[in-house]
């Protein structure tokens, strides 16, 4: 493995701001779609309802809210995970 390969495989977790909302939204929507199949059973109506408020604009607002703490997990420069702590509640955690 080369240093470049190792860097591409390294997971980096860091605080992020609302400027990361578009990437966080994509990660969150993908996580719900792929990882919650047992819950939504690929029912289009359920999935549409669950994803309706998962927009970059909403995530940016949630990320900017007072008391919010937000982290992105990056691999090879791409966001692959996202967590949002809203005051004392883990509001979102996606991979």
Written description of the protein model:
- The chain has helices spanning 3-9, 21-35, 37-40, 44-51, 56-64, and strands at 11-15, 68-75, 78-86, 89-94.
- The chain is α+β, with helices and mostly antiparallel strands and 95 residues long.
- A four-stranded antiparallel beta sheet has the order 1-2-3-4.
- Strand 3 and strand 4 form a beta hairpin.
- The chain starts with a helix and ends with a strand.
- 16% of the residues are buried.
Which stretches are poorly predicted, pLDDT < 50 over at least 5 residues?
none
Give the overall shape, derived from the CA principal axes: globular
Question: How helix-rich are the residues, as a percent range?
Answer: 40-55%
Sequence of secondary-structure elements = HEHHHHEEE
Query: Main beta sheet: strand number and arrangement?
Result: 4 strands, antiparallel
Determine the N-to-C terminus distance. Answer: 25 Å
Number of strands: 4
Strand order of the largest sheet: 1-2-3-4
Query: Count of DSSP helices?
Result: 5
Structural class: alpha+beta
Radius of gyration: 15 Å
* Share of residues in strands: 25-35%
Write down the overall mean pLDDT. Answer: 90
């Amino acid at each position: 493995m080369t240093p470049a390969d190792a860097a591409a495989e390294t997971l980096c977790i860091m605080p992020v701001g609302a400027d990361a909302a578009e990437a966080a939204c994509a990660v969150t929507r993908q996580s719900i779609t792929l990882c919650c199949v047992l819950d939504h059973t690929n029912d289009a109506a359920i999935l549409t309802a669950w994803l309706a408020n998962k927009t970059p604009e909403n995530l940016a607002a949630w990320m900017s809210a007072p008391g919010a703490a937000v982290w992105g997990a990056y691999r090879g420069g791409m966001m692959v995970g996202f967590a949002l702590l809203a005051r004392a509640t883990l509001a979102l955690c996606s991979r």
